[in-house]
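Entry: Outer membrane protein beta-barrel domain-containing protein
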Amino acid sequence: MKKLVACAVLGAAALVSTAAMAADPVSFDYPVYKDYVPPYVPPVDEGLKGSFYLRGSVAGNYAWSRQARHPDAGDVFSITEGGWGYSAGIGAGYETGTGFRFDTTVDYLANNDMTADIGGADHTLELRSTIVLANAYYDFGLGDMGLSAAGGAFGYVGAGAGVAFNDSRVSDGSFGPWGSNTSFAAAGMTGVGYDFGSIVADLGYRALYIASIENDNETPRYALDDTLVHELRATLRYRF
C-alpha cells in the first residue's frame, strides 16, 4: 500500500512539473545584433572573353600642315590657317579578353580651307582622303572592379599605321583640277567609353598623321608636308 501511494505521489509531481514548464518554458538568451549588416557579396564575374566586332565612327576634324612647297623648284611656303572638316568610317576587329583589341579601319576624310601664303597670295586647299589603318588598342576599366565582363566604364589608348589615298586641289580665287597621291599615314588614339554588353560606345581623340599631300595635275605643282589632323570621334562597336 505504501508503494502504491508513493508511486501516485511521484506521478502527480511529474504532472505538476510538466504543466509548470509548459506554462513558463525555459528561455535561452541568444545575442541579438540589431545593427548587423551582412557582408557585400559582389556578383560573380565569369571573366572577359574574346569576340569579333564591327565598328562605325563619325568625327569632326581640324588639320594643319608643317609647310607647303613646290616639289620641283624647292620653294617653301608657310601655312597661315588650318582647315576644318569631317570624317566617317567603318571597321572590323577582334578583342582578346585581356584588354587588348585589334582592328582594321577605313575612313573617308574631308577637309577644307587650309591656307598657304604663296608669293603673297592666299591659296586654299580642299582635301578628300581615304585612310586605311591597322590599329591596336588597350582598354582599362575605370571602376572598382577594373575591366570586367560585367561591362561599365572604361578608358583606352591605341595606335595605328597604314596608308592615305589623297585627292586634293588648290584655289587662288578659283580651283584647279583635282590631283592624287598615296602617302604613309599613322594615328594615335585615346578616349573613354561604356560597355553595354553587345554594344560598346566610346568618345575619343585621334591624331592622324599624313606624311605628304601632293597634286601632280596642278600648275605649278605643290606638296604639303607632315599634315596632322586632329579628330574628335564617336564610335559604336557591335560584338558577335
